[in-house]
Amino acid sequence: MSSPGFYVQAAKILDKLALKKTTIKAVTLADDVKEKKKMYAIINETLKYKPIISEIIEKSQILKNEKKLSKSLAIVLVYDLLFGHAKNFKNAPAFQKIMNKNKARLNAELVKIKIRKKAVNNEDLLPKEIKNPFILPRYVRVNLLKSTVDKVIEYFQKNNGYELLPPVEGKELAHFKPKTFRKDFHLNDLLVFPANTDFHDHPLYLNGTLILQDKASCFPAHVLSPPPGSVVIDGCAAPGNKTSHVASLMGNKGHIFAFDLDKRRLGLLKRLTTKAGCSCIEPLNENFLEADPNDPKYADVEYILLDPSCSGSGIVSRLDQILNQKSQEENENETILDIKDTSNKLVQERLKSLSDFQLLTIQHAFKFPKVKRISYSTCSIHQIENEDVVKRALESTNEFRLSAHCIPQWKRRGLEGSVEHGRCYFIYV
């Protein structure tokens, strides 16, 4: 049974997520959340049913009858009453009284929706993309500052009873048995587990040996590949997974200037990289575009990592689908901007603005006197943010070319013809 404070905190988390300035994992696994697993579960499940719950709340008029309830608090309470497990709210007597008083009306509205939608059970009310999402396997990066891949593999085999399977590519990764894992086919510090594997209480995660990081975000550091002793700039560093990955590959030998203009996000980077044991990172609460390339402290910078703001259109996540659900009322009163719809004029303007900013970051990186390798990455599916930015950047300089040797075992490359020799040079995740 959940306490009143638990429900109030869950409601505040829903409010934060509505602003779309954070992620489900970030707010539910934050330091001030005591029951992290439980909170993560209720937020995910509440968001799945949120459009249905919003309709029930509107039709039942519970907010008019219960003036002390906020919309978000009502959503959490209605979820737990109708879809969850807290049928009587024993540890929250004030909420128990409110929900018991409105229980019959709320149930009646749920039944009406089920009849209208011809739903046999609650899950039938969910859209297909939520009920049957495309789920990626769980990727886990081994932090080489804390251990080795072989030692981590041995730990899972001896202490957790896992079986190591041979590395595979593509669709074969969909076939995972419980208690099995693999080395990644392409990246030597990455392990692959079944999608539902939870590491948040695992001792190797808690001590910083394991970093929960998607495969796509592990490519940039490997592409950059600065050797130990290098001086590196991460121009768009927070929240810091890529920064800590570079430090891991360098063995903490050298120096990394980590730029981010957002003080809160830079604080997150400091916490994450400290936990990971990184001692070669210098966080800078500055705009990379305003950094003077001729400043003596950057005189030895040879490697620059750039992961600038982008449309995020290439992110495949069940959690994103949940967050982007709209109730009928919201759909009627809100213009929804689908960043994947390039026929939309507003989307075109947004992508043009992003690509211009991305180009500026690369061109600024070109100005550092000793820089010899730049890794540029986005999580976008759009050519305008990827190949087109690279093409424009290369057209603006005679000193740089695309590398022909980036992770040769990765076969998928950029769009043929969009950049000279694009199929040979471009890493496309």
From TrEMBL:
It comes from the Eukaryota. SUPFAM superfamilies: S-adenosyl-L-methionine-dependent methyltransferases. S-adenosyl-L-methionine binds at C236, A237, A238, P239, G240, N241, K242, D260, D307. Residues 128-429 form the SAM-dependent MTase RsmB/NOP-type domain. InterPro entries: MeTrfase_RsmB-F_NOP2_cat, MeTrfase_RsmB-F_NOP2_dom, NSUN5_7_fdxn-like, NSUN5_RCM1_N, RCMT, SAM-dependent_MTases_sf. The active site is at C379. Keywords: Methyltransferase, RNA-binding, S-adenosyl-L-methionine, Transferase. The keyword S-adenosyl-L-methionine applies. GO terms for molecular function: RNA binding; rRNA (cytosine-C5-)-methyltransferase activity. GO terms for biological process: rRNA base methylation. GO terms for cellular component: nucleolus. Belongs to the class I-like SAM-binding methyltransferase superfamily. RsmB/NOP family. PANTHER family: 28S RRNA (CYTOSINE-C(5))-METHYLTRANSFERASE, NOP2 YEAST -RELATED NOL1/NOP2/FMU SUN DOMAIN-CONTAINING. This is S-adenosyl-L-methionine-dependent methyltransferase. It comes from Piromyces finnis.
